[in-house]
Predict the structure.
Amino acid sequence: MATHDTMTDAKPDTPPLLQVEDLKVHFPLPATGLLRKSAGAVKAVDGVSFRLAAGQTLGLVGESGCGKSTTGLAVLRMQPVTSGRVIFEGADITAQQARTGTFRRRMQMVYQDPYGSLNPRMKVRDLVGEPLQVHGMDKNPGEYRDRVASLLKTVGLLPDMADRYPHEFSGGQRQRIGIARALALEPSLIICDEPVSALDVSIQAQVVNVLQELQERLGLAYLFIAHDLAVVRHLSHRVAVMYLGRIVEIASRDELYRAPLHPYTQALLSAVPVADPVVERARQRIVVQGEVPSALKPPPGCRFHTRCPQAMAKCRTDDPPLQDLGHLGEGRAVACHLHTVSGSIPLKVAA
Amino acid sequence: MSTPLLEVKNLTTRFRTERGELTAVDDVSFSVAPGQTLAIVGESGSGKSVTALSLMRLIPDPPGRITAGQILFEGQDLLQLTDAQMRSIRGDRIAMIFQEPMSSLNPSLTVGMQIAEPVNLHRKMPWTQAFEVAKGLLDKVRIPDAASRLQTWPHQYSGGMRQRTMIAMALACQPKLIIADEPTTALDVTVQAQILDLLKELTRETGAALILITHDLGVVARYADHVAVMYGGRIVEQAEAGALYANPRHPYTRGLLASIPRLDSPAGQRLVPITGQPPDLARLPPGCAFAPRCQHADAQCSASRPLLRTLEPGHLAACHHDHAIDASPAATQAA
């Protein structure tokens, strides 16, 4: 498989903050039948590579079952890895575990569900301060109190909210509590798994803005996992599109949204309605048929060929590697037979 | 405009809860013409789903009750009908598509049975014939290999296919009105586009009216002819879709449009969020429900409730300040 090692997210001499190499996460199926034959495995993540520079946001998008959340969990080392490497701040952390790994001070997570992810029996002070307690940073009560207060202020909450319980807060406020908790140990990377999708429309922007401000102020990097392409565009510097366990396209934000190359990226963008009837009426839409096939038995050849409006004979048999297409933009890579280093095949025009 | 198919007048639905009586739908009026799509848009707790259930008279009583208003469907007030009369309309002339296709399909009946049931029930068609109709309907909603699919079970279907099945059920008796409550919220975006395109195409074919309940302003822009924006149980703005987006008049509508990132908005620009949070229906302020979050709010707004007024023909808004606020589409430009 052709690699894209030359792909750079930052200056060539700065090593990336996070580097994921050929990551695979397979879930073996329980053996069945008399002979206990192995029934194979669900290849949730099947050869994913990307880099994320310090202070930047990499958006990871795709539909349900594409492996984006599993990728996030594997990076956090909360999910055993089948093969591949996760390199964070220069160290290979693949063999470490989330509970014991020293890297976890520097890498935190914000979850999707602001209701399920906060212990209802803990006060906000303890929710936000728990990471400090775990790492023995709560020895001086005065300092601890101040630290929690300043964390709450950082995310736009009031310090005196520390004595309340999660149920007293709205969804957007709870998500801020989750962010304050993630910030407690001054991480360099936060994995955000659908952090705004459970929130009401009018509240989403509040949380999006908090994330953006924190990045500017603290130099945080985000691995931003989401299905909402507009939110991802708004927050990301680079975007990777996943389909059935693979990255099919990765590019800078502007290039990916302005001129998507992979037919799946094109279909995905085309499917998202824009909140403007005039724009909508003028839009050329690409509609793909069918639904995402089961990850249990991904199609042979290109995994997208069963739904691809551009599929050729080759696509049914040959699995296209993710190829670095530097001539189309810095760090741009696509896994599609239409686009190779030697050039692109013109698209079929819809009848 | 031709005579509306459905005309809702001053609909009010109240619920008795532990925290006192609350008004989930408050004095709501709108109408839908044949072949048209009306989108009712709002956030959680805005009353949009309760409005849909009220139209179908599916409000659980107790604790809920429709306390006032008229629901004129083809000139007949649905609120005056007996339960038996209402049952004969539901699934026949008015059909509903729910958000969660898994829990709205019966897991212990075959797909064919569930689609054929309304035909058997309302058209008094023998089962064998009803199954033929069901097969045609599965074809129509583009479920491949329809004949053999009749004998399959909902659990064998993906989310998108379940929602197609729901649409087939809804279309079974060629309804005049289809109410779809967040029909694609649980689905992936490429499937959402397929399902909504299909629904729109089928309603266009049959001339049925569609009431589309959603929180997604993009979906509204793509599929709706008319829009009603709900907030705190009331309609705060109502207009033809083009007019609503080109010139939103209510501060809430403007705020919503400014707060969502769009695929075509200048990237990197800061969003303008609506501060605060949606209202608690049990503790609505005495004045305008949006006043605590509104930058234009003054003493009048917190004291008295603005009525829905016509600003231009077909464009209504419930705001004390709608003439004071600059009518230029500043909010959409900022979005």
